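Can't paste images in this forum, so I'm doing it all in text. The chain is below; anyone willing to post the predicted structure tokens underneath?
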Amino acid sequence: MNMDRGLVNRALLNAGHSPLSDGPDAVFRMAREYYLAAWLEALSEVPWRGGRKRARLARTGMPHLPGDFPFVYDLPFDCARPMELQDNAAFIVEGRFLRTAREKAELLYISNGRALGPRGHISAGRPGDVMEMEYMSGGFPGEETELTVTSGRPADITGPLPEDPEGGEDYPDYRLPANEPYEPKFWQYLELTLAARFAMKLSDQPGLHTQLLQEAMLISQAAEEASLSAAASRQSPRKWWAEELGLSGRADY
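Text version of the structure:
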């Protein structure tokens, strides 16, 4: 994934700075660093309707915990913001773990587009050791994973480990979602929050950073209202009391 130069240039202009130059100068390097940080932050802070995925969660090796959420699952590697479990089951998130009362969990979440490298490596360790995974990757969609297995410890490996190919992109570990693209409001929010970061670094106007964040907040509120409205439309209406009692029809007065 490459940073959107048009979006970055508009953010720089909003911060009172000139657009990017052709060469990789200090402003370009700063923009590349800020862009990914603002990208990940924007996806985790607001319940956007785009970029959503659904995945069956894998149970961790942790034992069942006491309390209302005994089962512990790993969050998907590309999960930016968990949205809901099937049947609207309750859950809590602790770091990169999700705890719930469901024995089988399927999560709807917002993806940050992170993709794993196409190669993996597993070490079996010495006889009697518990096999540990040094590095394993599922690879990009449509690519076959290459797997290397050795019989010794990682320190015993004499040959070099396979290197991931260079993608030639600003962020080769990330991909834009193809099936569920992010909505326009997300890009507006990203532009404003990125401009606020630029304003803190480049602008001599003390109130510009706050003004840009306030404009971004209005967009996030509108996105949250749209998400809540969509969630309410998916809920089944409550049955009429006569239907609950098994009676057909209802009286009209």
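The chain has three domains: 5-49+182-229, 52-111, 119-156. The radius of gyration is 24 Å.
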